[in-house]
Queue: 4 jobs
Job 1
Amino acid sequence: MLSRTFIRAPLFSRGLATHAGPSTALPAVLHLKTGQSFSGRSFGAPRSVFGETVFSTSITSYTESMTDPSYRGQILVFTTPLIGNYGVPLNRAPVDGRDVGVLLESNGVQCTGVVVADVAEKFSHHSAVESLASWCRRFNVPGITGVDTRAITRLLRDQGTTLGRLAVGADVSAPMPSPEQYWNPSAENLVDQISTKAPYELNPTGDVKIAVLDFGAKANILRALVRRNAAVTVLPWNYNFNAVRDKFDGLFLSNGPGDPSKCMDAAVILRKTIAEWDKPIFGICMGHQIIGMAIGLDAYRMTFGNRGHNQPVLALASSGSIKAGRVYVTSQNHQYALKLQDPFPQGWEPSFINCNDSSVEGIKSTEESGKKVWGVQFHPESCGGPLDTIEMFTDFVTECRAHKALVAAEDEVMVNASAKATPFFETIRAQPAAVAAMA
């Protein structure tokens, strides 16, 4: 009979996770303008803030969400219970033909405050260099944990996005703010605050030149263009593009925060561009709304917007890699949308519609218009999120290259035609001299 040998495995403590460090342990409370309050404890910066309270259903990529410029002025509620478990990476990357200088979506935390059910006390990831609490503290952003984010989300979903105040420390005992004390970030031009103040270039040796109007561009949008070997020039949101448009092979309009009506200057400039320029134009999120306003559509404020990585959209028209009738899962972050109207402006058609709320998710120029213009409300570059529509960037850059090649071919034909016609023109120019000699 075989004897059995039992080997007792040693007990290992979880030594691979890093402790987040000492907590401020200050009390905190989230006040909503609609009258509700949620008490918890603070992490991050020990200060109080006002903002617009919104929720995101994204399960991963809290670092990318918090660095997205579209969250500027907002108190971000994560519906996922545990946040911070994989820490925060070093936010640096090279500036070359593959990257744009940052690993995340911008060079700092963009949201005004953070609300989570349970902030991780330990984090573990091979690229992590600090905890969520430490990162927030470094960028002076307060957070609150230990609150029922399900209840907060239900309130925001049912009554709509609400202004709020995140009070920390001694401010917790102060009375709830009166309605007129709440700060509304949408009343300000947030795009003007976040947009680049001067043009700059990325990947200048790329084989196709694309201008980007920066309404608050995510780094992954620029990265997606650079990695397709585009030479990218980033311009301020209200830059007079028509003065320099002939230098470029295409125009891209980025995402951005706030109310699109604050950017009518850009829509007016773009209206002239679309009317007079026949090169490809592509807009995402805020850029999509600017295109819509430029062609005569209205933008409206949604009840609670769409923020998350799981929004299904139905393609109504085929274009490049997009096939009509297919449902694509997309990443989104927006409070405003374009109104669906009948009839649609001449030369234009809706290209995507949201499967949940039937909002307009995309518009495009028709084949008959002779234009190459697209706009989508979602984020094809989706960092994080699904990559169902990432090839829309390839489609856009390919169209820019095709148009560049067509223009070059047309120029060559004109040069050749001019060369062949030279003797004829020289004969015409010589006729007056011959007549004068005969006289």
Note: The first strand starts at residue 18 and ends at 19.
Job 2
Amino acid sequence: MSNLLASQPARTLLCGLVMLSGVAAFATGAQAQSQTNAQTLTKDNGAPVGDNQNSQTAGPGGPTLLQDVHLVQKLQRFDRERIPERVVHATGTGAHGTFTATDDLSDLSKARLFAKGTVTPVFVRFSTVIPGRSGAETTRDPRGFATKFYTQEGNFDLVGNNLPIFFIRDAIKFPDMIHALKPDPVTNVQEPERVFDFFSHVPEATHMLTRVYSNLGTPANYRQMHGSSVHALKLVNARGGYVYGKFTWTSRQGERNLRPGEIAAVQGKSTSHATVDLYDSIAKGAFPVWDLTVQIIKPEELDKFDFDPLDATKVWTGVPQRKVGTMVLNRVPDNFFEATEQVAMAPGNLVPGIEASEDRMLQGRLFSYIDTQHHRLGANFQSLPINKPLVPVVNNHIDGAANTSGRTGRVNYEPSRLAQVKEDPNARSSQLPLAGTTQQARIARTLNFQQAGEFYRALPAQERDDLIANLSGDLKRVKNQDSLYTMLSHFWKADADYGRRLVKAVGADGAKVATLAAGLKE
């Protein structure tokens, strides 16, 4: 019995080797079959690759040869895999879907996109604003909510955020604001000292700062997040009449945000939690849905408000929402880079029936966004598949790097008798009455603090507590007392309780802040 037991391990090992050799033979056969069906690896010129494992060398111990075209090409292409990242909105994710116009908007806009029953393909890119590429999706930051509509009249880009307002009202301050919010150029760390040094000079930012430091500044995911055009656009009807409209995306999944104590736990598991959530939802067939509504103000009503309705730091309180349609996201891009990274959203991509308003922040974005896409992607970026309109593009924009338009013919100008193209009177711009002189001056009705106070008072008690905790945590890190007290006075001016709670949280002098706030004007 002992001898039998002693030989048992050897027999077991032998059986195991026989089984393994059988598995290996099966695997070898499967691999051979797989290689038979596999595509042949090629260089960029289409020529087959003979050896993708070893470089060409001068003998077994000599240097690598420059004539190894395959090696050189792999390194060249690898070195150029990255394009310039977006200065803002670098971290993002995207999805394809459709927009269906459920209500007739023809009395307001001649855009065929808004004709009841029209179904339009869309691509949506969600993003954070300040972090560089691959930043954490838990960052306290506005979220980009940009939608490209591939309409029957060309592409229309609705380029907005999850929050309905912005920090500043004039695009001339945009580079300064972003510089202040970006990492310190010395330490490469975002510093509240720099952030509030800047915003202490920008009282109109009080409203946006209040929203960003509320839990709205840390959405739980993209599905449960609302969106806004932020700016008013002009809607022009077939008669040439126009109104101003602000668009809102309302998530049918509801709205959910992260509380202060949840952020670290979520980020500790994944820095891309919102992307994972969106893609997992689509993969399961639980397609996220948003309803699009619009608020309308007539030109003659602009002066009836105690603020400027074309000021991007303001919401249109009390102006009713009108249903436009519904969007469903139902497909994840096949290639992240070719879609989400190369998609070029721009507020200047408009179609007949939709125009830019006189909003000063929007006016600057009309240039800036198109310009940054030219810098990132080259002159022919609108020919890339993700940006290419569904309708034919007919113009005399020619050549440039990576031009694949396939243009033919001798005439690349207009007008011409040799090759005629026509204008479309329906696409002519509306007419805006003007008065006065050229100027450089701020808007007349600023109302810098009131809406911040209204927002604070509308928050539930728990969310007010979270706002105070979030905001005071950064204010405590501000060493410059002038910056600190100026910021505290702005929040006090918005709402005295808001200011008092922040003063207590940071250990400041309440009487001094109250005096500063009393000297502020809306």
Note: The first strand starts at residue 92 and ends at 101.
Job 3
Amino acid sequence: MQHTHGNAHRSLDDYRREIDLVSFLEQEGFRVKTSKGSRHSKWVTMEEPDSGRCLIVSRKQSGEYRYYNPSDDFDKGTIIDFVAGKKHYDLSTKKGWREVADYLNDYLGRPTHHLHTVQQQPSEEVKRNRAVTQYFELEPLRDTRYLESRGILPETLSSFPFGQRIFNQTFTNEEKTFRVTNTVFPLENENGMLGLVVRNDGYNKIRGSKEDGVWVSNIDPTRPPKEVFICESPIDALSYHQLCPPAQPHERMYISLAGTPSHTQPLTVQRLVSRLRPERIVLGNDNDPMGIYYNTLWLAQLNPARTPVGVGPVGRVLASERKCTVLFDGLPTGTPQTEAYIRYWQQGVAILNKGYEANDQRAKLEVVGGGPSAITQLRLDLPKQRPFLIRLEKMMADFRGLTQVVGIKRPMEKDWNDQLKQSQQESLKAMQKPPVSPKPEGENQRTFPRR
């Protein structure tokens, strides 16, 4: 979704690129530490005198400014993350994104959203037409060589879930000396197309915007799907369908996030789940620590429309290079339910740490607030290691009451496409194995000499 506000019609991506983060931080009270680099260096060190907070600022080749705090793995991101953290805006909601845009518009001296709420906005159909026009170069899927090289069969591509959901796009360089046909997957939200996942043998990029857009398979409006399958890439969806086809083509819907979920993609997925009310949700992320982390992220946030028991509180799951943090915010202090939540995770820490010595990296629980505070926060920190994450995955499903409606399908290989190709190789070897000639009758019988 292009988050635009007022007359400027600007995307939040524009703020990330066009606002000089060093100058912005100076306005926010930081100063450049010249001892470690000037404002014209590739890496600029900024310090907030009152707190001692130190941020390292750089500008990427894409033009986007980013920062990180060498003392805090979670204190990093773009100008959007800085503003959201400072003002406590909730980026899991559209209101939070709008508040960030208003704050930055005010910094730039532009009109904010609130000053223009009475202006007539373009209709959803007009917005959709603009997005489609932006990507008009989509072509019907005729060149399937890339997909076939990944083991995807023509009958899979022509099946109900994937018809008109995958396209070709021809790229020609300015000198007209290079031409390639890409395979593209549209990323859409409720209002239409935002961007494309562009793939070929040596290329895997997103063109346009991802934000709250996801790639989805077809849905039969007369027969809602019984199952929703959530995975990282559209190739994984095609591979899983080929390996484990549903009983009827319309019974399963596929959703791909095109990599790491953004702040707003879970909102789109939740709206789809709430509208379609599937009997079951299947998480099919990769068989690696990041894939397991994504599973816990979904287990912490999803609210299935059909569940036999009450769903536990929504949580947030964050990850750095070596650590994973689970947060449950806004719990009312002192209530029997909150006390039960605390006991659950106190026992959970013992389960997470089972088999690890005291001097090893271990999970720990912190209860923030309580006492005179009306609000309690639970914070669980644990190493970002496979054994811890798998245990957390199971505990999160149990804690939120999702074990009967949300399942996890983990590929044996790294991802579902690797498993598909491995399965095809094994089938080919079995076909190429020479047949075993039957032995003559009686050859295996043992003959004993007569006495």
Note: The longest strand covers residues 179-189.
Job 4
Amino acid sequence: MAASRRLARKLPSLISKHQRLITPEPEIEGLDATESLVSSSSIPLDPSLPLLPLAVSHLSPPSPLPALPSAHASTPAALLRILRRARHHPRLAALDLHLLLAAASDSSAFRPDHRLTSLIAARLADSHRLPSLRRLLELILSRPCPCTDDSIFACPELLPTFRKAILAFATSGDIPAASDALASLSRAADSPLPAEFYNIILHALARLRRHEDTIRFYGEMTSTHRVPPDVYTFNILINSSCRAEGVDAAMRWFQEMRRWSCPPTGVSFNTLMHGFFREGRYKEGTKVAREMLQLGFGLSVASMEILIHGLCHGGKALQAAEVFIEFSVDGVVPEGFDCLNLVESLCHVRTVEKAVEVVELILDQNRACCLSVPAGVTVLECLIKEGKLGEACRLMERMVAVGIVPDTISCNYIFEVLCEAGRTVDANRLRLQAKERGFQADGFTYSIIVQGFGRQGIRKEGESVLDEMLDSGFIPNIATYNRLLDCLHRGRSL
């Protein structure tokens, strides 16, 4: 920050001093003569670039930007130092390409190196200045990097620099600009480009739902440019075909993969499985998951989410539960998969017994990572709504024992229902067990337990909870304490 402030103070004065030195004092009258004088000493700018004033603090140099002193931008290394120092300046940061074009126009021998062009390309791509980025690529091709003077090969940083530009064009949806940059790069590169560069444009076309153009570009890639596709290429084509033509059309790309000796990956099968579920073909979608296990790919978290969500979304919650139980017994369910979606679907179709079976299976296998707190709370609330309080207490006790502790609001709801049903002792026992696992009770938690003990006439335990509430600082004054104590002794609620 200190270097940036020093630059902000010194750069305008240097520019103004140099302007006075290089500009003669002609005796020309009139406004037109003054405008022609300023324009003759100014930097020729790209018409697509914004004209930003270089005003810093209280100084305002003339606009358009005057020429920088040759001592400060005569070499690529000097210009690189200027741009790095000005990268955080709110007004100088946007003049990076202006300064490069000015240095190139002042001297035909000026050739920017790959460090300078790579830095400017990254900044232009990040700030979405696509016309300026196109102008930079033209300058790179017209004035090659000095590192190519002693070599017959192109600059090693040519491909990374163009990749940033192609990715920026494709992300913004400017496919013609991305294609032109790719064509220019293929002419300037020493060897055929890898499939990675073509995959960028393929993915952009697929994302824009231009399936026919995606297929045509793939044909140009393999036939015209003779670039062998990789697995990412086929994954893009499978996804695009599933959305545009259907799963049957996407299946043909697996044959194309075998023709190119390109083995599929888990992403290929996940895309195909998602396409089957989208079309309502649940048996085929489940079959894809089983084939993944038979081929040795295994199921990832994304695979399980596609499988369970596809079945549950299609009204096949019981089938999804059976598949989950089968895969859990076989030990192929990946760590990190959350069964929340499955539990919610089972509770939605009022099959809470199956949801409890799923949760207990997870607890029996000591795979608490597959049971999140929302999933456990969903099952507990479903049991409470059906009046199965004993089952809810037993399940919550098992969950808390393995560290799955519901949040304070959920615990208060469960404790309140238990106390109203005359099971305050169970509610207090669950509270103490959850406290050992990090549960943070609030004033409402203690109030529920104290009133529950009062209604049941259990004064000794109630007074103990009331004293704990007082020690925790949840009783603001003596009047509140007396009201709770009165409820405890008279057996009534507040």
Note: Residues 2-22 form the longest helix (21 residues).
